[in-house]
Fold this protein.
Amino acid sequence: MSSPGRRLGFGLAINEAFHQVMEEDPSVVLIGQGVKSPWYVGNTCNGLVARFGERRVYDTPVSENAVTGAAVGAALAGLRPVVVHPRMDFMLYAFDPIINEAANWRYMSGGAAHVPVVFWGIINRAGEQAAQHSQALHSVFAHVPGLKVVAPSTPRDAKGLMVAAIRDDDPVVFVDERWLYGGEEEVPTEVYGTPIGKAAIRREGTDVTLVAFSYLAPKALEAAAVLAKEGISAEVIDLRTLKPLDAATVVKSVSKTGRAVVCDVGWRTGGIGGEIAAQITEACWAGLKAAPVRVALPDLPAPASRSLEAAYYPGAAQVVAAAREVVARGRG
Amino acid sequence: MPLKVVHQAVTERLEILDKDGRADEALVPALPGEELVRLHKLMLRMRRFDEKALTLQRQGRMGTWGSLRGQEACQAGLAANLRREDWLAPSFREHGVMISAGVSMHQVYAIWRGDERGHLFPAEVHCLPVSVPVGSQLLHAVGVGMGLGLRGEKSAVAVGFAGDGASSEGDFHEALNFGGVFKARTLFFIQNNQWAISVPFRKQTAAATIAQRAHGYGLPGVQVDGNDVLAVYAATRKALDHVRAGHGPYLVECLTYRMENHTTADDHTRYRKAEEVAYWRERDPVDRMRRFLAARKLWDEAREAAYLEEVAAEVEGAVALLESTPKAPPTDIVDYMYARRPWFLEEQRAEIAGRVAP
Ligand SMILES: Cc1ncc(C[n+]2csc(CCOP(=O)(O)OP(=O)(O)O)c2C)c(N)n1
Ligand SMILES: [Mg+2]
């Protein structure tokens, strides 16, 4: 039963996805470090051990490679594991099972094997977490054939994309970040999947398209509000999925506005933002009034101190500046 | 054909002081009184340093801090055996060893206040930067140890640090195996404080000890009472002699207890029992050594008070230095990326220099 108006935070929305999908499908298991520990995975795993038991919800030793490799094996044999990496940085210990194995098995087995695992990585982000605790590796995963990558920015999508990722028959990397966990909105009570590969238009506009995801999606909306006061009408697209990219929605929008600002929550060089800008350029060349502009993290690790963090992370102000620039540069 | 035994290993545990500080006299290291006192002083100094950090953190003057309280005997027992030429590969709870080995107090504070400049250690101190991914330190220490061997060092060794949690990483196992094959000049120093955040040791491994794993890789390994500074000192001395002599790595497991929260961002009362903590409080490493020294008339309340005053002044001096350090300029984040700045960072540097807070 849906109860209209019910609001949930980002963490509890993910928690509800787990409760509902684990209830409907006994092959779903959750495994990772700290699934019992509130400050590690927040409230996302509340009540799961009590409800489903320790044979479906595993709190593990400090062994990212073992956690992930075992999940891949279990998936090959028919389970649907969700692997929790509470710090995305330490997923690097598990690159082999994700990239060499999970991503390749269907292809290498001529379609016989499949690996329905969700690799959930939380970007810890700022608050003096520094270089080894803040890394956004979504673009690395998006680069790898065989993986899907989703990156919700709202509680409603967090729940829907987690459900869809678990139900998906291929490996899905689910990327979110600490900064999103303060968000709250109306979330449907029933179980639903948000389609993987489908972007959302968050605000319509005519002068410039702001393409964003994850923490920069709400920042792009803030930026659009500021721009509106200056007479610039911005359309805001929240990608939600990075692979497969919803190029059709982006291209349609930029064909209308003729200008694009692409916002990437990761490093600039070699990031998904560059890929999106390239696709826009290829598909919209004739209609572009200016070259697309990127907003991204500088090509540097996250600094440790708060004062330096302020200089490091782009926010709404940078999106506004980029939009003004692209509008000013426009040829017509 | 009957089955043959092809390998058998026994894992030993060393204890010298009992819970009340009474020693097994036959095992007490043959050290002059002042050296025994030094072990105690090292512990007092690191405890005071650690307590101050916790206070600063509560006052919003420090970032997240991982307290070493309860592990002083491990770190002091090791530190007393270190030589100037030795190398350290620390994880995030090795403040005690670091300040004992010559890293300045204010630098360790700076690291945890979120200032990369804290890693600008004095040139004569061979300490790698604090690495956060657990387990990584052991492989680094293997590499350093191999390098020392390559250079023909006869004394210097590398010490790699890990906890009980880190011992579940592949890195731990690969380090032991690899170091053994290449006879690295490496000491694996494991502080088993029985908790990895909220996961207890018995959920970390089915093995009874961490020390016994060394045997599987062909290395000597021993467990010591990690709340007994004399035992840690003696075991570490023996282990270091072995490594210094070029016989390859050695593993020392100190069985101890993390008295505080995992870090200041944690609340341990949610996952462990007060009785367990109380049990270990009664085995406090500093109290045990104090009683041992007092019984030998090497130490008394007046000496302790005087020394604590001295240390308090040193710690306050470090805090003053820390807090008078000017903030790093924003361009610092660009300037230490490569030996020479590439063109794209020149552009990004200009952007950052002109940027205001988001
Ligand atoms: C590779 C890696 N995975 C996870 C973490 C997150 N983490 C930080 S401390 C810690 C527990 C480590 O436990 P232990 O090795 O026993 O050291 P202790 O905290 O007890 O000193 C974990 C899992 C990390 N730092 N590195
Ligand atoms: Mg531990």
Remarks:
- The two ends of chain A are 52 Å apart (CA to CA).
- Chain A has two domains: 5-188, 200-331.
- The CA atoms of residues 103 and 146 of chain A lie 4 Å apart.
